[in-house]
Amino acid sequence: MSEKVYKKISVVGVSRESYEKAIQGAIKETATTIHGLSWFEVKELRGAVAADGTVEYQATIEIGFRVER
Questions:
Q1: Per-residue pLDDT reduced to its tens digit, 22-53
Q2: What's domain 6-66's superfamily in CATH?
Q3: Do 48 and 67 contact (CB within 8 A), yes or no?
């Protein structure tokens, strides 16, 4: 069978350094439980500011992976 089937899930990565680190962290953590990751799409970038001025970067991404039998 040459057809392929993929599934997408939505995850949110968080970092105090950058959006890039938030995305990388989300992918790395997801890869510990889901195998065959194929691509990701950035859906939303946002941040939070704490009372002390600390910034937190948040990235919502969808990660696609191949469905295997």
A1: 999 999 999 999 999 999 999 999 999 999 99
A2: Flavin-binding protein dodecin (3.30.1660.10)
A3: no
